């Protein structure tokens, strides 16, 4: 179970890291220069996490963990029970791994709700 937990966390980090690397373009960044510099100071930490995911003890297992996670929770639409269950699971896993300051925060996210539908030709 510990391997699954760490692999899950690794998959989550890999997704976040790869998303940032794939979309971050310095010429399109609208953040103030001071904030960009502060963020840039975290690069060694990001690199260490990424290196552990790629070459560490759980290398090659992160995608399997992600597969199991998505199979377990399916689509996680805003406001859905699946999303709430997935968030609860992620929080429990991170706490079990001993991560500090694990918590959720309220967020207002608008979502579509099906109402009565009709059509006329």
TrEMBL record:
The keyword Metal-binding applies. The keyword Signal applies. It is found in: Secreted. One of its GO terms (cellular component) is extracellular space. Residues 1-24 form the signal peptide. Keywords: Glycoprotein, Hydrolase, Metal-binding, Metalloprotease, Protease, Secreted, Signal, Zinc, Zymogen. GO terms for molecular function: metal ion binding; metallodipeptidase activity. One of its GO terms (biological process) is peptide catabolic process. Its main location: secreted. InterPro entries: CPQ. Belongs to the peptidase M28 family. This is Uncharacterized protein. It comes from Anopheles christyi.
């Amino acid at each position: 179970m510990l391997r699954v937990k760490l692999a899950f966390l690794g998959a989550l980090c890999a997704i976040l890291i790869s998303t940032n690397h794939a979309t971050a373009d310095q010429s399109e960044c609208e953040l103030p220069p001071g904030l960009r510099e502060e963020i840039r100071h975290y690069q060694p930490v990001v690199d260490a996490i990424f290196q552990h995911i790629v070459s560490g003890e759980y290398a090659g297992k992160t995608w399997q963990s992600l597969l199991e996670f998505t199979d377990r929770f399916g689509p996680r639409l805003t406001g859905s029970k699946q999303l709430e269950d997935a968030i609860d699971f992620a929080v429990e896993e991170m706490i079990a791994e001993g991560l500090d300051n694990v918590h959720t925060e309220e967020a207002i996210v608008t979502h579509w709700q099906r109402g009565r539908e009709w059509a006329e030709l």
